[in-house]
Every structure is written in C-alpha cells, then in structure tokens.
Amino acid sequence: MKRLPFILLVVLLIGSFFAFKSSVARTPPGKYEQIMGLVGQLLVQGHFSPQNIDDNFSRKVFDKFMDDLDFEKNVFLKSDYDSLAAIYANHIDDEMKGAPVQSFLAISAVFDKRIQESSNWSKAILAKPFDFTVNESVAMNFDKLQYPASEAERRDRWRKKLKYLTLEKYVDLLDEKKANKDQKGYVIKSDKELEAQARGRTDTVMGRLFERYKAKYTDNDKFDMFMNTIANTMDPHTSFMAPVDRRYFDEEMSGTFFGIGALLQQADGKIKISSLNAGSPAEKSGQLQNGDIITKVAQGDGPAEDLMGYNVQDAVKLIRGKEGTIVKLTVRKTDGTVKVVAIKREKIEADFDTYARSAVINDPVKHTKVGIIYLPEFYAAFDDPNGRRSYLDVAKEVQKLKDAKVNGIIIDLRYNGGGSLYDVVQMVGLFVGKGPVVQVKDRINRANVLDVKDESVLYDGPLAVMVNEFSASASEIFAAAIQDYGRGVIIGSTSTFGKGTVQRNFGLDAKNGITYGESDLGTVKLTLQKFYRVSGGSTQLKGVESDIVLPSYMDVLKLKEKDNKDALPYDEIARASYSPWKSSWNLGEIKALSDQRLKTDSAFKIIKANSQWLVRENDESSLNIDTYRAERKAIKAKSDQLNAAQKLKSTMDITLLPAEVNKFAGDKTKAERAKQWLKSLSEDIYLNQAADVVDDMINIDRLAKNATPVVTQ
C-alpha cells in the first residue's frame, strides 16, 4: 500500500475530528468536557507514539497533576491523596472519552481548602518567635518526601519551611548589623528585634505567595495546568496552551509582539517599570517613567484587572495584545500619585534578546581574529512573510565577519532551546552547502530527508559550535549535522539536552473542533514526528555528545531529556547518503591539543569537584543557627570558588564590529546591555577554550597552506 504524504496525514487527521464532533453525545458538553474530548482524540490519533488512554494512563496523569500542584509535599495530606485516588485516579481516561469532568474539580477543591489552611497557619506560626538553638533540619529534596500522614505532620512541614525562610533573613540581618555597627547613623537593633524583623519579612513573602494563589490559581488556571499535565504525560514536549499563552509563545518565537515597549521587573511584590524602549509607545506617551508601579491593567474600556499576586510574565501577557488596540494602565507614580494611562499597542521588536548578534575575539599575540555568533533561538515569524528569520540573520552576521576578515567562527548555541526546523536546515547549508541535514519520520511514513538544494557555501573556514545541557531540538540538529559532516568541532557539556522530536500547533475551536488557526479553547503543541541525524541515530535522549567536553555545574543536575520518565526512547534508522567535509585538520589532533590545555587548567578541575559537592549538600538544611552558619559558610566557599573558576583571570579582547559600535547609540538601555554582553563574553572561560580550539584549527590550516602559524602559549 502506498504511504500517505505527511501533509495529507495531517489533513485526514483534522478531518477525523469533524467526524468525531458530529458523533458525540446529544447533550452539549461544557467547555471543560469539550476541551478534554478534543485533546484526547488528538493525542490518540495524531501523536507520534501514543499511549493507550486507559486506567494506567489515567493514574499517571493523576499522580503527575497532584505533584505539579504540590511538589513540596506540604499541601495535600496522604488521606487526601488516597481518597481522591480511590474515586478519580482511574477516571480521567473516561473524562477524555466524554464523561463529565469531575476529577479536576474535586482535586481543585481540596487544593483550595488546604491552601487556605496553610495561609492561616502561616500567620499563626509567624506570630511567635522561633528558637534557632534547637537541633532540627528541613528537607530540601522534595522528590524523597511522601505526603504527610497527619495534620500535625503537614503543619510541622510548614513550620520548618517558615523557620528556614526566617533563619535566612535573620542571619543576613545579624551579618548586616555586625558589618555596620560602627557606621554613623546606623540604628543598632537587638537580636530579638532582628528576629521579629526577619519574621515580618517572611510574612510579607508568604503573603505575596498566597495572593498569587488567589490571582493565578483559579479553576480555569488549574484546568489549564491539568490539560498540560495530560499532554505532558504523553511526552514532555506535547503541551496544552491557553489562548493567551499561545499568543505569548508565538511572540517569543518571532521576536516581535504588539505592546507598549517597557521593560518590567518584580520588586517587593509589585510590577515596576525598569526602562522604556527608545521610540516606543510607552516613551512617546510621555506619561510613564522608570520606577512607576503598574497596579492594574484594562483592555480598552473593559474592567481593570488587579496585578496583586501577578508575576512579570503574567503582567506582560495582559499588557500585550493586538496591534492598534488600547491598553489602559493604572500607575502609581514615584511621587505617590495614581493615574490611568491609555496607550495604543504598536509592533515591538525584542531585537537584542531574540535575534542573532556577533562580536570578534582579537588576539594580537596569536595574530588571530575569531568571530562569535550568538543565536538565542531559531526564531521565525511564521505569520509574517516579511518577518525576521534566524538563518537569514545568521547569514548576514557570517558575511559581516567575513568582511572583517576573521580567521575562524564560533556559533554559540548555549541555552538555545530550538525553534524553526526550516531555518536550522538552511543554516546548516551556509556551512556545508548542498546535501542532507536531518531525517524526519512520522508514525506512518518512512523517514523523509530534509536537505539543502543550494550548492554554494557561505563560509568554509575553521568552525566550532558551542553547546550546553540546554541546547535542544533545532540546536541539536545543527550540532549533529556539523559533527556528522566533520565540518566543525562541537564544544561544551558531555551532551546536549536530548530532544529529538518535532511538534506542531493545533488550535481547539468551540465551533470547528481542530483547526490550524482559531484557538478560542486553547492550543495543543503535539509531537508528530521524530528526527534523526544523517548518520542514522536519533538525538532523542542521547543528545549530541561534544567532541571536546568542558565540565559544567549543570551537568550534574539531571535536567536533561533522559532524566524525564515520560520521554520517548532512543532509536536508529538507516543513514542518509552524504559526503563528509574535507578539511586540513583532523578531530583527533584537535582533541589532543585541547586535552593538553585542560590537564593543566585548574579552573575546570574546581568546577567539576565543587559541582558534585554542591549537589550532594542540597538534600537538607539545618535549622540550628550555628550549624546553619557552618553549612552556609562551607557552601558559600565552594560556590565562590565555582563562580571565580568560571571567570577568566585575564580577560579576552572582544569587540563589536566597527559598523555595530553605534547601533544602540539612541537607546541607553540596549547600549548598556550590549556593553554587559561583551564584558560577560570577555570573562567566559568556556568561550576562551572554544577560541583556543579554533586557533588550533587556524594554525593547522595555515601550516597546510604554508602560511605563518599561530603562536601558541
């Protein structure tokens, strides 16, 4: 039987939902039932490797949702878990198939009740002084905890949490007192007064936490969490997004949004304006200044929403919206006055945070110039044919560096979580030319090879790719292709994140079911495909192993795909037909030169040893002040050593390209951030090692061409 093309598979998949929609029970389902039904069908019929929606799946969702709501194990009682599980643990799959939604509502009701109890306890506990001479400790590794067996045990967990938070603040106040006691005008307080002050600060923090529960843990908010839990149980990258979250996701992917152009920060539980973009609607209004506190947000003439309990991301989602619409901000000015400011939303580009940018590492001793291109994500404006695309921007940066006559290039993909599949394929082509880049396979068809048609190569010189534990998806496709072709050297953590799956967004619409566009009920980001290297292996779970491994703190934290029990497995398929790149250097020689440097580099030995020590010390903390001080002193010493080791003692000379120096002259905020970026690069021990590797490649290349070699030190 002839296999269906992937796009036809998707069309038929969507068509099945129209059939499903017309065959449901006669009683119209409510919003929750409608969403659960559509999501259930989508997971079963469209997911790359669907699990059976049965009692076993239901129990996994139940446990995961309970843990998502109460990961510290101090909200639910063991009896809460048992009683809810007895009725609903095997019922969620039935709800996904059309039964009335009851499980989520029951769990939500118990959660709300326990949070209110916890809020009351917090006030009562913090009303009395703590005794920091008692020998006891608080658990910090929540994965090892079970739900408390009694009210007394649950209350005691809250007591220890509050005592720990207060102890932190109390010790800080004591240290401040010791450091400032001889300062003129400093008011010296007794230890008793400082303990009360520490409890007051903890009470303020907890008050904000409980306000957030009220503001952002409504039934609708928790239902969105519940649906995301269901999706995540199928695999970690299948997810559910409420409409406002889908819009935010698209904005982050494109690097553009419609808003007011103000940078916000959270300070003392309030949403404060920290800076205004030059030429933005916020600046042009003349009514907003740095330090203004935004207390409420209204959409046009609609009701104002109080921001009490909101974090910055929540506030941003309210302030952004459709182009040309009005947002009204209730603002408390620095002089204490309150005013309502109406601003029309305009297109804003988050150019510094989102888009590719470059710099040059200058080494007058070695007579080399190495370009670095930083790419935070593989962005693409999918809905705007004239919008920015990451591969085109990278091509521009490569050309700028070539014009500056750099001897080698480093592509920095650290913390790059991926993005557009099309863009990464085209970006590989800039460095290898025509040929296959990645193989993509859905659950029905055999693998499809995505390749570059253009034979031209934009850059053919020495190349290195920097990665870490958070380089994922499209970043791994790029690193894997460069590695398989032998085009460059991969430098960084033992391996990248390990996400080898492809997702596509499907909208949930009240009238039309599953759509590409309308999503008034939400959006499911569904895993439809898996991708494989041209050499045949998947990057799923394994990631891309670095050619040159540099120890890092994050390598011991177990944050990769392989550490998630719901992750899809690793597998292999047949390799694609491709021709390796021919270069003057060989990887074995490059690795040997790097190994020689690392053997004598004490910084990386400190990073490795201290990272392992710090992870072991995080399971619990003493609540006895003397023991706590000793623990904190030891942790601080190791942490300070670790931080110092990650910064070069002799900084590198890193500059912007001459044409870029005055790029942000009209925007002080961006100019300062560019300055800080260059400073952080100049101190970056990992970048320094990457630059040394590229210098080795340059040296070998020069020797092969009988040119002047690089002077090694």
From TrEMBL:
Alphabetized InterPro entries for the sequence: ClpP/crotonase-like_dom_sf, PDZ, PDZ_sf, Peptidase_S41A, Tail-specific_protease, Tail_Prtase_C, TSP_N
One Gene Ontology cellular component: outer membrane-bounded periplasmic space
GO biological process terms on file: proteolysis; signal transduction
Keywords noted in UniProt: Hydrolase, Protease, Serine protease
GO molecular function (one): endopeptidase activity
Domain PDZ as annotated: residue spans: 246-334
Database matches in PANTHER family: CARBOXYL-TERMINAL-PROCESSING PEPTIDASE 3, CHLOROPLASTIC, TAIL-SPECIFIC PROTEASE
Protein name, as recorded: Carboxyl-terminal processing protease
Native organism: Niabella drilacis (strain DSM 25811 / CCM 8410 / CCUG 62505 / LMG 26954 / E90)
